[in-house]
Design a protein that fits this description.
By secondary structure, the protein is α/β, with parallel strands linked by helices. The chain has a single domain, classed as TIM Barrel, CATH 3.20.20. Helices cover about 45% and strands about 15% of the residues. It has an eight-stranded parallel barrel, surrounded by seven helices. It is globular, with a radius of gyration of 19 Å. The chain starts with a helix and ends with a helix.
Length: about 300
Amino acid sequence: MNYTRREFGLLTLAGLALPARALADTILGGVRLGVQSYSFRELPRTPGGDATAAIIQAMKDTGLSETELWAPQIEPASTAGRGASADERQKAREALRRWRLETPLDHFRGIRKQFESAGLSIAAYNYSPGADFTDEEIDRGFEMTRALGATFITSSTTLAVAKRIAPFAAKHKMNVAVHNHSNTSDPNEFATPESFAAAMKLSPHFKINLDIGHFTAANYDAVAFLREHHADITNLHLKDRKKNQGDNVPWGQGDTPITQVLQLLKKEKWPVRAYVEYEHRGTAGAVNEVKTCFDYVKRALA
């Protein structure tokens, strides 16, 4: 990848303050880029293991060196398939809880080492406590995040659960960026500017993971929100959706102002990460679809 003189300087400075892996970070037009590993959800797991190897290879193939790691990809695959009984689902849930609480932290440090050995980095861990999480599971998420080498958590959770997360964020002195969807009818969901504001009031450690596609589908202005609240935004999810709860669509076919958002980041030089998230129904396979999205980003920042 070719860098401008200024971008190379930023990488060099980053290398003075961070481990050598920082030299692989993808920065274009001063904008720090990465990929939400959910984009690679269709890729196979290692037999008896997780999707770490597949994600690493996919990132190498796409040229994106920083990720927000989606927790289910490194957690055990569910043993309760479609049609499972309530008892089977409950047993699977208990097994997952035990795995979270009992798996040694060295396991997660090992995943970190695999990424770093490939010149890649895990910036955030996408860990999303639900109402069925125990306090111990919430607490453990922060420990796993730190072991993975990530500096913050992103979370698709609810306002009610966020209230339970707040004291653990304070305990671990780690930021949690709440992620929005587009269900504006439920005040417990993160979808509206008001729901983000409610989270910010809970703790100084709560930040925003703004999904500009979902925000657009909920009929809000991602550019205006970014301009006003950039100081509270850790990272963006880049995808294209249509307004009025419209579908995820190939980039450029929806109403999401992807180019305007990226140009604003480039102009203002705000330290907000921008992550590709492939979520529409593509036909070329996850790796090629992410490449196409990344090409769109490059054109937008040109």
